[in-house]
Amino acid sequence: MHTLLNARQQALIPIAAFTACGAMDKLDQALNAGLDAGLTINEIKDVLVQLYAYCGFPRSLNALGCFMSVVDARKRQGKVDDEGKSATLPPEGWNSLVAGTDNQTRLVGQPVSGPLFDFAPAIDVYLKAHLFGDIFQRDVLDWPTRELATIAALAAIQGAESQLKSHYAISRHNGITVEQLRTFIAVLAEKCLPAMAENARAVLEQFLNQQEQ
């Protein structure tokens, strides 16, 4: 038993990872396990919606369709799952770009800029306004939980090591400990695929070594 992450947090990891890599058969099992572990329907929905920003609409939509089938099947079996709270509506006059820029700065710990965003400023606007504004303002999930889902998804995507390393840093800034990150990798190894865990472990060691220098 991995005690550094609770049962709900552990259950979230394979849901995000299998969504990102498109393993629908394994996702079905992970979604059932997540509900059994106490994740609410709305919490899982929010994770699957958030992940479109990291693995694309097709896999997010496929995962939501899979989850809809899981929820329907469980209802037919007489299981009663907690719907959970809905997201609070944004206040009047909400500006996604302004709010998202502030959210991104607080998540990362400093304003985010760089040559890539100068080269393609539209992606900077979309990241700030939509991902960090529209999505991260939804209070169904707290930010550490969203980051846990993000690193699980990125660990499952080949070629996303740079983004995974960046989100390790964001995770640490938002209260996820190194010990919890190691537990995250152990859960990947146990409940997902060894290759995912090895990828995540290698990137974590690179990140930690850079932090020590």
Summarize the model shown.
By secondary structure, the chain is mainly alpha-helical. Helix content is 72%, strand content 0%.
Provide structural commentary.
This protein has 213 residues and is an all-alpha fold. The protein has 2 domains: 5-84 and 140-210, AhpD-like (Up-down Bundle), CATH 1.20.1290.10; 91-138, no CATH class. The chain is built from 12 helices and no strands. The chain has helices at 7-21, 24-36, 41-50, 52-55, 57-76, 96-108, 115-119, 121-135, 143-155, 161-173, 178-191, 194-212. The model has no long low-confidence stretch (mean pLDDT 96).
List the helices and strands and how they pair.
Blueprint: H1 7-21, H2 24-36, H3 41-50, H4 52-55, H5 57-76, H6 96-108, H7 115-119, H8 121-135, H9 143-155, H10 161-173, H11 178-191, H12 194-212
Helix pairs in contact: 1-2, 1-9, 1-11, 2-5, 3-5, 6-8, 9-10, 10-12, 11-12
Organism: Kluyvera genomosp. 2
Protein name: 4-carboxymuconolactone decarboxylase
GO molecular function: peroxiredoxin activity
